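Re: that backbone. Tokens:
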């Protein structure tokens, strides 16, 4: 190709990348790189490979682009790629040192005087930060640079990060306003880079999960789904699938949460991708622990135990097996990484308090309760206040003040009811039942435990429902009636049940229903859990209810 033809193909490649035509972009950029491996062509090909899911190749190509910019003296462009490389390496466990190295390089280049480079460096630091106040402050610094330099991509990303930091630090209204603005600008295409929308969408979904704002997520959901249909990158898949599931689970729709998680896991696997954001397997493992399916939960977290989102599932597995020391160690390690003032510590501390109480470490529990109280007061979030109520009530109960404990558990249950979080409300009512029993009110205690068991049972959380049911029975109350009924199965699960009754394997079910074997296995597991049975043979007994109905 002559020079004019190279320029024309470069324009073609850039247009294809902007329009999400990954195959065309890959071909055109590859042709240009073969003839003229400029920094721009290498960077464009690297960004294309990132969207295709070839992450290692994307890193290699963008590293070459970084080197080309440095040799040409374009430090601002080199700094921008260095920040991307830092974030990219940080998203993979075990590459923290590499991420720090690239972040240090970006800082040195950004110090050279180019304001745009300083803005992107501040944004990178906000992305790697865990403290929400620092996230917002760094993003605000990037936002000021973006507006001074009219960098649309930096402005949108900084708005999103600032919004998420504000939400996580308790300033939800201000944070959501910034996220709405960022989403509007990103979805309108104000920034040429398609990844700007993907990353902004991740921040919005994370904020919606933090605030349990399903309505806002639904409003932006149509925009995100259209984007996802064109650009099924593992980052957006993992984040949206996991966080949407988190919102549904909090609202009590565990079946919906499970569908989102299994869909996300299957789609990532089908594309040969691993999640690089919120790991859906960790969220599914947490649900499996609540369902009492510990072996499945353990398989799901194998290899991802060190990820922050897996901590609750890993600790839950240890607790279910009576390994309180191991659970405590897992939670303390996470707290050490989070830092003393991060709102992310609240759910970890809330999980630690009952362990400290069970191990008679009331001084440790007192410290944890005080920390939760301080952080929840700073956040102003009602869900955080409910966790603080529960933690303080646990400590009061351990110290023998059952009446005060009961008031705390009741307050938490009522907060969860107002928030539309029925499962957490039911869990608080199980604890309320224990406090009422300790104070001698066995009648009210049995009623609270029975009501909680019914809620947990309907959600398919068999292990937790069984514990509540056992408490109700021990107090002379009626237990819940039988296992989950066939009528709670979805249409697809009913089809799977009938095929299980025919003796078909998961692979044969997958072939019959035109689904993947992995999906078939998930459906079979769901059927067994909902029916409250342990084997396919037991499940087959229930199939006659479908045939006779």
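Recovered sequence:
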């Amino acid at each position: 190709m002559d020079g004019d033809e190279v320029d024309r193909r470069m324009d073609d490649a850039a247009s294809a990348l902007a329009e999400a035509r990954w195959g065309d972009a890959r071909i055109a950029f590859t042709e240009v790189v073969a003839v003229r491996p400029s920094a721009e062509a290498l960077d464009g090909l690297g960004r294309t490979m990132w969207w295709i899911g070839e992450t290692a190749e994307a890193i290699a190509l963008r590293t070459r682009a970084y080197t080309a910019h440095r040799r040409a003296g374009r430090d601002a462009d080199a700094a921008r790629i260095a920040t991307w490389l830092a974030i990219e390496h940080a998203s993979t466990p075990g590459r923290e040192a590499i991420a720090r190295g690239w972040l240090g390089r970006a800082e040195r280049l950004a110090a050279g005087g180019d304001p745009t480079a300083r803005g992107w460096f501040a944004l990178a630091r906000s992305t790697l930060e865990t403290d929400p106040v620092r996230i917002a402050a760094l993003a605000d610094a990037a936002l000021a640079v973006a507006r001074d330099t009219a960098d649309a991509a930096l402005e949108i990303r900084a708005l999103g990060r600032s919004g998420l930091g504000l939400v996580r630090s308790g300033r939800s209204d201000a944070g959501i306003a910034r996220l709405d603005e960022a989403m509007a600008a990103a979805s309108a295409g104000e920034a040429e880079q398609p990844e700007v929308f993907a990353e902004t969408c991740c921040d919005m979904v994370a904020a919606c999960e933090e605030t349990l704002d399903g309505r806002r997520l639904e409003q932006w959901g149509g925009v995100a789904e259209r984007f996802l249909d064109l650009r099924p990158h593992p980052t957006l898949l993992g984040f949206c699938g996991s966080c949407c599931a988190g919102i549904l689970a909090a609202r009590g729709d565990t079946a919906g949460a499970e569908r989102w998680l299994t869909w996300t896991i299957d789609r990532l696997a089908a594309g040969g991708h691993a999640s690089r954001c919120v790991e859906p397997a960790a969220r599914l493992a947490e649900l499996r622990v609540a369902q009492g399916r510990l072996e499945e939960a353990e398989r799901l977290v194998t290899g991802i135990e060190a990820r922050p989102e897996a901590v609750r599932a890993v600790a839950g597995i240890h607790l279910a097996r009576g390994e309180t020391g191991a659970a405590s160690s897992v939670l303390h390690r996470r707290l050490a990484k989070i830092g003393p003032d991060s709102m992310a510590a609240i759910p970890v501390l809330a999980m630690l308090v009952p362990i400290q109480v069970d191990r008679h470490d009331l001084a440790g529990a007192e410290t944890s309760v005080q920390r939760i109280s301080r952080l929840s007061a700073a956040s102003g979030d009602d869900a955080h206040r409910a966790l603080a109520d529960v933690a303080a009530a646990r400590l009061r109960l351990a110290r023998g003040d059952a009446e005060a404990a009961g008031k705390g558990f009741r307050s938490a249950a009522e907060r969860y009811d107002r928030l539309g979080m029925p499962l957490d409300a039911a869990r608080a009512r199980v604890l309320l039942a224990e406090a009422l029993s300790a104070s001698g009110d066995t009648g009210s205690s049995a009623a609270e435990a029975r009501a909680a068991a019914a809620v947990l049972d309907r959600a398919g959380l068999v292990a937790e429902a069984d514990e509540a049911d056992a408490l109700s029975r021990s107090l002379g109350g009626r237990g819940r009636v039988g296992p989950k009924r066939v009528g709670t199965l979805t249409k697809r699960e009913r089809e799977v049940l009938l095929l299980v009754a025919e003796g078909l394997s998961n692979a044969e079910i997958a072939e019959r229903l035109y689904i993947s074997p992995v999906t078939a296995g998930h459906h079979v597991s769901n059927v067994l859990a909902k029916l409250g049975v342990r084997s396919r043979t037991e499940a087959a007994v229930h199939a006659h209810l479908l045939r006779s109905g």
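Confidence is low (pLDDT under 50) at residues 480-484. The domain at 487-548 is CATH 1.10.10.10 (Arc Repressor Mutant, subunit A).
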